[in-house]
Amino acid sequence: MAEATKSRPFGWLGVIRLGLVQAALGAIIILTTSTLNRVMVVELGLAAALPGALVGWHYAVQMSRPRWGFGADLGGSRAPWILGGMLVLALGATGASAATLLLAEHFLVGVAGSVLAFFFIGIGVGAAGTNLLALLASRTEPSRKAAAAAIVWIMMIFGFVLTAGLAGHFLDPFSLHRLILVTAAVCVIALLLATGALWGLERGQIRPGPGPAQASDAPAFKAALKDIWAEPQARRFTVFVFVSMLAYSAQDLILEPFAGLIHGYTPGESTQLAGLQNAGTLIGMIATAIIGTTIGKSRAGFMRLWTIAGCIASSIALAALALGATIGATWPIQANVFGLGLANGAFAVAAIGSMMTLASAGAPSREGIKMGLWGASQAVAFGLGGFIGAASIDITRQILAETGTAFALVFGTEGALFLVAAILAARVGTTDQDDRTLPAFPTGDMLPAD
Predict the structure, then answer these.
(1) Per-residue model confidence as pLDDT tens digits over 211-222
(2) Rounded CA gap, 271 and 30, in Å?
(3) How many domains does the chain have?
(4) With 60 as the cut, is the pLDDT of residue 440 above it?
(5) Structural domain contains residue 370
(6) 288 with 351: CB under 8 angstroms?
(7) What's the Rg (C-alpha) of the chain?
(8) Which of helix, strand or coil describes residue 271?
(9) Is residue 95 part of a domain?
């Protein structure tokens, strides 16, 4: 196979432009996974399992992520994959809000429309998100990978926060027609922002697409995926991603219904609460990135310890939510949710930095399929976690007399799962008879190839 021309790495401006695309992606996602879920459960009075199943379905569709990444690995520019995915995502999100209106008037038609809309959402997120991160990994210098990953993820959280605040404001006084208009407006703005940020970004930097000889020599997708899974670094990190994301996603779909049922929040107020959580995550990521840059480089294992601490802190915050669910409306839910966001941000920066570094390790031109593998692991975890969390609330509310007790049981279980994630993070760097030592939480240095 002919070697691809080495591309000039991105400067900080290029990283920031990719961060703007990630922010646009996050702006659409928060409406589809948080606000629509709240509306179905509280305003329409539907079982929480329905939005949980829909979100789980869109994550199941993202099992195609490795294929999207592999396809772009064989080609040149990733920008068309990213913009195409954003367009499909925007159409799916607008369609999902319209299907919510149908759920109130023609239930079965609304369910069918929602299933189709969330299919497009899954395809759009998978194609755009995988290739955005692959582009960042392949065009960022090794010494900047951790910082670049933090910048891009922080900007995505900023997109969450800004959209939650503004959309929450314009959603009140609430109506289903207003929901459709707000969603469509957010999608249009996000598409324009992503297009402007990507315009000319790869000019003079993209590797040439494979010619006929290169295409014929390209490894089969299944063989390439098998090779990636054989790498100890990639395999162990995949397991950690799955468990940690499962722990986080299990509370994602029930937090806004919890605010509405236990604390009497309106749709706009509960959307703003989700924004407050993401604000905490944003601050946690910024603080961790700064501390990691100033202290982590001089202390081996700092980022790994920070990841473990973040998982433990997340467990404590969820345990506090469980306690608050039994106490009721007097519990300081805003401070609690903000603290949960801080803890989530702490472990996220280290994990993302590791992902960026590991994606560039090993065989060249494999960033897309590696990002796809970890994205698929995250998607499966989010799909299972979201559905299990939502369904658990339905079941426990039927069994237990108090709604608050039902939420307390579910939040407590999720906190225990975060402790499991902390244990896995502690074991990631260990060795056994079959695997080498895995320094899975580096501070920016390139890992050696297998």
Answers:
(1) 433 444 455 677
(2) 9
(3) 1
(4) no
(5) yes
(6) no
(7) 21
(8) helix
(9) yes
